[in-house]
Specification:
Layout: H1 2-35, E1 38-41, E2 44-47, H2 50-83, H3 89-95, H4 108-111, H5 115-125, H6 128-136, H7 138-144, H8 151-168, H9 171-174, H10 183-190, H11 193-203, H12 207-236, H13 241-248, H14 251-275, H15 288-333
Antiparallel strand pairs: 1-2
């Protein structure tokens, strides 16, 4: 009975995301039906299509946001020059060549020349890609830590929490009305569990620490994988998202190679130090087999967190401007 309940719950969770498009469509249909407004024009009535009006307002909002951001930047520059104020290093990194608006199209030549893209690239390769490499090495990690019998449990933990992380990536859109953060801020928050997990593994190699760390890495990497497409679309344009996102995920094979080689070098070094020979059947046992790997992965994930935080600081202005204009246009609409 317990196995059947677990199977039924797993199937329900897997099927539930398929219902989300229907729920969203029903909600949009309801709003379209209720809020389609009739405005009096002379002696008759004029039916206003809400979707067309929203699209028109969105285009006007983006254009005005672009001009306003440009004017504001020019004003701030002139004011600083007039007052003799000098920008610090942090201000220069945050405000120099930052995005003026969301959704601006970036061709490949412009994409690879932007600091925002490389911050995003670093955050991804030092966050989601490390989690992927960790899952690929999870069986050998469990064997080295004496938890070979729990390999299936660990893989299930990683897969389950990766699934929940992907579901959580949709949460910012559902709680947007009550609590709004830039999507790059959610990316920064999602990167927090990864360094915690690796430093926990470096500090302790028992079964509980291994299970908690596996769950944290799965949750973080699942969120990043699912949210990355939306972030790429918002930062670098929806029309170019296919090409731009494929350029972004080139970090997965590159990072997998680098992190895999790093783990292999550390692993083999401890085998050779004990036996002075390495064969295909040689197995390294003990915490030292992956201790330096966990430390290096933890430090790299901190670098990814720092890159994501800087990306958030550089894009926060564009997100705030877009949200203000969106609320204003919705208020005028309804």
């Amino acid at each position: 009975m317990r196995a059947r309940l677990l199977l039924g719950g797993a199937i329900l969770l897997l099927v539930f995301p398929l219902c989300i498009p229907g729920i969203v469509y029903a909600r949009e249909w309801f709003h379209r039906t209720i809020h389609s407004s009739l405005s009096i024009h002379g002696s008759g009535f004029l039916l206003v299509d809400v979707d067309d009006l929203e699209l028109h307002k969105e285009l006007i909002t983006r254009e005005s946001s672009y001009h306003e951001n440009g004017d504001e930047t020019m004003y701030e520059t002139k004011w600083r020059k007039g007052s003799g104020e000098k920008e610090g290093c942090c201000d220069s990194m945050v405000k120099k060549d930052r995005l003026a608006m969301l959704g601006e199209e970036h061709p490949v030549s412009l994409l690879v020349s932007r600091l925002d893209f490389w911050l995003y690239y670093t955050a991804y390769v030092c966050g989601g890609t490390i989690g992927l490499v960790y899952s690929n090495n999870l069986g050998q990690i469990a064997q080295s830590l004496g938890q070979r019998s729990n390999t299936t449990t660990l893989l299930t933990l990683y897969s389950s929490f990766s699934f929940f992380g992907r579901l959580l990536s949709a949460a910012p859109d559902y709680i947007r009305a009550k609590m709004y953060f830039a999507r790059t801020a959610w990316l920064t928050i999602a990167l927090v569990p990864t360094p915690i997990a690796f430093f926990l593994l470096a500090a302790s190699g028992n079964a509980v620490a291994l299970q908690i760390s596996t769950a944290l890495v799965g949750l973080s990497s699942g969120f990043i994988f699912a949210a990355a497409v939306s972030i790429t679309s918002e930062l670098f344009g929806p029309n170019s998202v296919g090409v731009n996102h494929n350029i972004l995920i080139t970090n997965i094979p590159i990072g997998s190679l680098v992190y895999g080689v790093l783990a292999a070098v550390v692993y083999d070094s401890h085998v050779s130090s004990r036996l002075n020979i390495i064969t295909d059947s040689t197995v390294c046992m003990g915490r030292q087999c992956y201790f330096l790997t966990f430390v290096w992965w933890g430090c790299l994930s901190v670098l990814g967190f720092a890159s994501s935080l800087l990306l958030f600081l550089r894009t926060r202005h564009a997100y705030d401007q877009f949200e203000v204009k969106r609320i204003s246009s919705m208020a005028q609409l309804y």
